[in-house]
Hints:
The chain is of the alpha+beta class. The chain has helices at 3-20, 98-109, 133-148, 155-169, 177-184, 229-243, 257-261, 269-290, 297-312, 317-328, 354-368; strands at 26-35, 47-48, 50-64, 68-73, 81-84, 116-123, 189-194, 200-204, 212-218, 333-337, 344-350, 374-378, 385-386. The strands form three sheets. Strands 5-4-6-3-1-13 form a six-stranded mixed β-sheet, sandwiched between helices. The longest helix is centred in the C-terminal third of the chain and has 22 residues, at 269-290. The two termini are 13 Å apart.
Amino acid sequence: MNTRAGGRSERVRRDFERIHGRAPEGVWAAPGRVNLIGEHTDYNDGFALPMALPQAAVAAVGRRTDGLLRLHSAQGDGRVTELRVADLAPGTVPGWARYPAGVVWALRERGLAAGGADLHLDSAVPTGAGLSSSAALECVVAVAYEELYGLGLGRPELARVAQYAENAFAGVPCGVMDQMASVCCAEGSALHLDSRSLEVRQVPFDLGGHGLRLLVLDTRVKHDLADGAYAALRAGCERAAGLLGLPALRDLAEAELDGALSRLPAELVPLVRHVVTENGRVERAVARLADGRPEALGPVLTEGHASLRDDYGVSCAETDLAVEAAVAAGALGARMTGGGFGGSVIALVRAGEAARVTAAVTQAFTAAGFGAPAALEAVPSAGARRVG
Ligand code: GAF
C-alpha cells in the first residue's frame, strides 16, 4: 500500500514539471516517525523501537549534468535554491535546504559520485513536533540518489550518510534512530534497532487487530535540537561512560547499575539511570509485542515518560500535562516521543476511547492556558521507497 505519500506522488511530479520545466526521473517518499520507547539511547549505542508515520516527505528528482543542485520545496518561499555541488560546505546553506544539500555533501565526502539534480520536495511531516521532519527530508534525498546515481550503499549506510549530513552539515548532534526509522521501517511493524550494529528487526505491531489506536498529540511547543541542551546531555552520557571505563552506556547492564551509580558524580547519576533503564524498557516492550500483547505496552510507555521527566529532564509542562491527562482519561499509557523540550506525546488507547482521551487532553490544555494540541494518528507505515 502506498499510503498518503503514494497518493501525492502525481501532484509532486506535476509540480516538479512546472517548476523545473522538465519531467523528473522518479518520485520517492521517506516518512517521519514516532518512537514507541528507547529515547536518548541511540547516541549511547543502545536500543530503540520507532515506527514510521503515514506522513512522509515526497521528492521528485531528476539528475543534472552541470553540477548544479536546484532545490524547491512546497513548504518554502516559492524560490528555487541553486547550489553548486562542488562548493557545498557545512554552515553555508540556511533553512530547510541544508538537509537535502547536506546529504549530497555527505555522499561526496564519502568519495561517491553524487552529482547535481533538480529536486522538488513536499513534506507532510509536521516540523518542530519531534516527528523527524528533518530526517524525512534527508532520507528521501538519500534513497533517490542511491537509485539515480547507482550508489549501492544499502539501507543502514544511507541512514548513516543522512545522520552525518545532519551532524556535520546542519550542525545537529543527533543519533541515528530517526534516519534508521525513516529508511528501514516496514508497514505494520515497529523497528527494533540496535544503534551500535545497526541491526534491525521488524516487530509486528497490529494496533487495529487488537482494538487499539496510537494517538499523537503535538503540543506545538517547538523543540530545537541544535540549541545546546541535547548536545550537553549527549556529552554527559559520554563522560559517564568514560568514567566507568565503558565504550558507551549501552555496555552497562541493569544488574550493575547501582554499583556504577555509586562511582559517578551526582549530576551524572540520573542520566545514566535513565539510559540503562530505558534500554531495559525497550526489551520489555519488544517481549510484550512478541507475546501478542500490544496493550501491555501502556505501562512501559508511562514509566518511560517518568524517567525522561524525572531523570533525564527533557520533558516540559505541556508534555507532562498531556501524559497526565491522557492517562487520567483512560489511555493505557502515554509518553513524550523524540528528543523532548516540547514536541509530541503518544498515547496508546482502546479504539473506543480515542475521542475521549483527545478531548480530555485538549480540555486540560485550555484549563492550563496552553494552546490546543494538534492530534494525529500513528499507524505503522512503510519506510523510504520509490512511489512514482
Ligand atoms: C532526536 C534525535 F535526532 C535522535 O537521534 C534521538 O536521540 C532522539 O532525539 C531521542 O531519542 O530525535
